[in-house]
Design brief:
The chain contains 6 helices and 12 strands. Helix 1 packs across helix 6.
Length: 184
């Protein structure tokens, strides 16, 4: 496991519908490696997760509201999936601004499953090669991205690095790629 002391990670989620393990596993592993992980949602309180977009999962505390965070304080942006989560988040103007700020400043973004919908919405997948949950493929291609079916894809095109994975089964490779990026 990489040593990530001093690294700060911003996780953007909706208050409801995030895929449980796509929030829980990266947050736990990155914190265990020494990173400071902030979970930001539109509203304060808690995040209600789902398992497989269907079954109720665990709840997680919200550390900050999306509108209150200063994105410049963070080294990496993490976008978990979950259909409801990603579909709601893609329309959140504050989340859109944060994603654009990370890309324009050259800081990395990591996104899994349906998480790339926010990047599709903001035009950030244009010219990028990425993976995602299979049903997001058409959206990625229509937005100018190149979709691949790989466990993890790291793309440095357009002056910023995008790390993507397909689903919870890819979490070990996904978190490993995040750690590699933050220690490079």
């Amino acid at each position: 496991m990489a040593e990530l002391s001093g690294k700060k990670i911003l996780v953007l989620v909706n208050n409801q519908g995030v895929e449980q393990d796509e929030l829980k596993v990266p947050a736990q592993k990155l914190r265990a490696a020494g990173a400071e992980v902030t979970v930001a949602a539109p509203e304060s309180g808690e995040v209600k997760s789902l398992v497989g977009d269907w079954d109720l999962g665990e709840t997680f505390p919200v550390d900050a509201t999306i509108s209150s965070v200063d994105d410049s304080d963070y080294d990496l942006l993490l976008l978990p999936g979950g259909t409801l989560n990603a579909d709601s988040l893609r329309l959140d103007e504050d989340a859109q601004k944060i994603a654009k700020a990370f890309a324009s400043s050259g800081r990395p973004v990591a996104s899994i499953c349906h998480g790339p919908w926010l990047l599709v919405e903001t035009g950030l997948v244009d010219g990028k090669t990425l993976t995602s949950y299979q049903s997001v493929r058409t959206d990625v291609v229509n937005a100018g991205g190149n979709w691949v079916d790989e466990q993890v894809k790291v793309c440095p095109a357009n002056g910023w690095t995008l790390i993507t994975s397909r689903n919870p089964g890819d979490l070990d490779a996904f978190v490993g790629a995040i750690e590699d990026q933050l220690t490079a």
